[in-house]
Amino acid sequence: MGFKEILVVTARLRAKQGKEGELRTALEQLVLDCGHHEGLLLYSVHQDASDPTTFLFYEHYLSERAFKEHLASDELVTAQKMFNDLTEGEAQLETWRMTARIGEICQ
Fold first, then answer.
1. Are 8 and 59 contacting, i.e. CB atoms less than 8 angstroms apart?
2. What is the spatial distance between Cα 73 and Cα 94, in angstroms, rounded to a whole number?
3. Where are the domains of the chain?
4. Tens-digit pLDDT profile for residues 43-81
5. Beta-carbon count within 10 A of 106 CB
6. Which DSSP symbol is given to 70?
7. Cα–Cα distance for residue pair 52/44, rounded to 1 Å
């Protein structure tokens, strides 16, 4: 499979005021909990250096099917319920197709 077939997903979340630490801990745990998902190549979470209420997921999937299975997983369904208490508004989700890269893709 070529890298251009990889689905790249970004998701932005904003913590409720005062909930940044709790959300960060929950997101870090979610990354660990989802590590076994088939077709998930890279799953990372980042906290904005200038706005600690903003978090970004950066994800690589072998296919759109793998992404849909991740969304339907028990881990993500459970986490989404918890996020309702920790986040403001809806997550901003975007999907991308990789067009060029250097370096290795995590597996």
1. yes
2. 19
3. 3-97
4. 999 999 999 999 999 999 999 999 999 999 999 999 988
5. 10
6. H
7. 16
Q: What is the CATH number of domain 3-97?
A: 3.30.70.100
Q: Can you tell me the distance from the alpha carbon of 60 to that of 105, in angstroms, rounded to the nearest whole number?
A: 8
Task: Select from 83, 94, 91, 90 the least CA-distant residue to 27.
Answer: 83
pLDDT tens digits, one per residue of 1-33: 566 789 999 999 999 999 999 999 999 999 999
Contact 80, 13 (CB under 8 A): no
CA-wise closest residue to 51 among 13, 89, 77? 13
Write down the pTM of the prediction: 0.89
Q: Give the residue from 97, 66, 104 showing the smallest Cα distance to 4.
A: 97
**Sequence-ordered list of residues with C-beta below 8 angstroms from that of 96, at least 6 positions apart, any chain:** 7, 8, 9, 10
Is residue 47 within 8 A of residue 83, CB to CB? The reply is no
